[in-house]
Predict the 3D structure of the following.
Amino acid sequence: MTEAIKKLAKAQLPEIIDIRRHLHADPELSFNEFRTAAFISQKLTRFGIPHQTGIVGTGICALIEGSKPHAGKKPAKVIALRADMDALPIAEKNNVPYASKNAGVMHACGHDVHSACLLGAANILNQLKAEFEGTVKLIFQPGEELLPGGASLMIKEGILDNPRPDLIIGQHVQPSMEVGKAGFRSGMYMASTDEIYLTVKGKGGHAAMPDTYTSPLLIAAEILLTLDKEFMSGRGNKPWAEHNGIPTVLAFGKITGAGATNVIPDEVKIEGTFRTMDENWRKEAHGKMQSIARKIAEERKGSCDFIIADGYPYLANDAGITALAKSAATAYLGAANAEDLDIRMTGEDFSFYSHHLPACFYRLGTGNKAKGIISGVHTATFDIDEEALETGSGLMAAIALGLLKP
């Protein structure tokens, strides 16, 4: 089967490259992937794969049913494969024929690659359906980049029902990993992502008359320093702090106070993010942050509004499913090309699926240092070595078949 998959992946590579380039040149923002969805639907129809459109507006669900006679005592498995479709509000700077033609919008996170690879895997699996039993559910998902996340909305609309998958697999580009490789991690892998909006209120006035004002900037400074000490102290050389062994990051990226050199404003607005990998600690930390900020503001005769917008939960990879997926990758790519990954404090809305089903979210190497393909995701010069499309399509199909075995 490995050789059959590789042969099909190589044969279809020119078409998968064309698919990826088409998607890359016509990116659409979250929950507005109408042309993208129509194009993917056309390809599924050409491949002879039945599917449903219009889920959460632009989402697509397709089914590939294996036709090999069922021989096991247990019911045949149902597995889900997921790709996201949306792009980012970034102006592309790549000088390539397939560069974005939509001003200020770019596939800078590789979702064009994810969708192209899932289409490629679908085509392979559909051609091999006589060789397996069970069902493969294909999920093309909108809105990964924007809260509340397309995954959460698709789950609410029943994407995990009729039929309910036994497990789910997702793939994501990794530009720091060389093409031809893939990476896996069992257990805690990616962080929950909450947005923080803090408004610190004081009393404005003339800067030369400190007896007449209460500076919200000083209150805000004390709040930020205290929160940093409470949540991020002891980090050392690690990329995150730990609270009872749980990776944690609290960071603030924006502060706005509409004053001047001699004008103290009435209020200061602050924006930041909180990330961790435990839902109980996440809730506890929310309350702790709010309590600290409000206490400091009150002690300094001000006040504050501390709003936390709940984002994606943390992403946990099922140990058994991840071990099987890595084993399939080892067989398909070779042991040297199936690598172990470290924890990441970045977020991904695939995490919603991982709280409903056993899941594995792995990384696909797309970089090539020799060719100068090294730019990271969410940058204006992100691109891939397109040989990754052959690897990604074939690997996803190989993992699916490996996990469908009774």
The domain at 193-312 is CATH 3.30.70.360 (Alpha-Beta Plaits). The chain is about 35% helix and 25% strand. The radius of gyration is 24 Å.
